[in-house]
Amino acid sequence: MKSLPDRSHREELANCITHAIMIPVGIAITSYLVYCRWEFDDPIGKFGLIIFGITFSLMMLNSSVYHYASDLFWKRFFRYIDHFSIFIQITGAFTPCVLLCAKNIYGYGILAYLVTFTIIGIISKYFFFDKVFGGFVYLTMGWSTILIYQKIKSYFATQELLWFLYAGICYSIGAAFYALQKSREFMHTVFHLFTDIGALCHFYCLYMMNIRTMQEVPI
């Protein structure tokens, strides 16, 4: 990493707050989803929800700490962790979708692909941080799963797919603002806000999946 982004204190504070507020939100929603499913004999489904909750909350926490930090050593350190955690969270975002609805070769294939992408992405970011454009790589990682859409769409309800798509669109719009962050102040904050909105869409998608699939598992 050659240098840190040149942002004002007020922008970094806004960046910190916009992700810090999502930590309790993520914990609360995940806890509710797991609680609703607790009496059902589906440990894999519960595991998927917990994985998403953990990876999401850690991503928001790492982002908040990075933007709040003022010491240059720790700010650089947590910038690495922040970018690493995005790769991990993308895999975490798909995990409950697969473990709730698509426990088959195609679903597990998606997870294996994403885990591999995550490992390669983290290694690439570590050694070539400034040469790897994060926004493009993250979008490629998420949207590339559409290549097997025809194989998995039958396992999801239409509204679930729509809200998952809405989340992806929000993340993509956010990535556009991420690319503009050097041109105007608070562009990174707007990126954070679209990330928050996308996360809420994703949580609603999981809520619908959770309700539907609970009718298919024994108590």
Helix and strand string, N-terminal first? Answer: HHHHHHHHH
Return the average pLDDT rounded to an integer: 89
Q: What is the oligomer described by this structure?
A: single chain
Task: Characterize the main sheet.
Answer: none
Identify the CATH class. Answer: Mainly Alpha
Integer tally of domains: 1
Number of helices: 9
Percentage of residues in strands:
under 5%
The helical percent reads: over 70%
Shape: globular
* CATH homologous superfamily heading: Rhodopsin 7-helix transmembrane proteins
CATH architecture: Up-down Bundle
Topology:
Layout (H helix, E strand, L loop, with lengths): L8 H12 L1 H16 L5 H26 L3 H30 L3 H23 L6 H10 L5 H4 L5 H22 L7 H28 L5
Using brief descriptors, characterize the structure shown.
9 helices, Rhopdopsin 7-helix transmembrane proteins, mainly alpha
